[in-house]
Amino acid sequence: MDNRIYGYARVSTREQNEDRQLEALIRFGVPEQNIIIDKASGKDTEREGYQYLKRQILRKGDTLVIKELDRLSRNKADIKRELEEFKAAGVRVKILDIPTTLTDFPPDQAWILEMINSILIEVLGSIAENERNKIRSRQREGIEAAKKRDVKFGRPAKPLPDNWQEVLAEVHSGKIKPVEAIRELGISRSCYYRLYNK
CB 45: neighbour CB atoms within 10 A? Predict the structure, then answer.
């Protein structure tokens, strides 16, 4: 059976568009039906499409094409591990933004290409990881700044039932049990105890 070529594209959120990556992959010669797309973070490699591609589709002799190194992951250790796994499985990885990965060297000079690629991947992997760390740092700073402005996160608190104080007084005095209070208030058990323990 002929060796096949596949493409992989990833964007971090559903709002982002993968068209730029798809165009580059198709222009390179990847059939559109052979491109797997994930809309998920690059914090690790546990993504549905990517794992399906790795475990169910790619086999020895196939080629995987990606637009940029950080489409695999934004974690340097993950990137290196994934590339090593592909190499061990006999799958060639071509990265459009690293032209040396697209080159075919004579077998006796392949070690030169491998050395160049290793250096480039080390550098670009570090940049990808650093970029992710910067994003996380900005998110933390944004959350801290919002908290200082008294911005509330999460669901807005539900208002207390109108008869809350009266029913609570009856529970405290022993006139009614919590189960009766819950029924009288018309709220769930978890909501009652959450409000009760506030």
Answer: 17
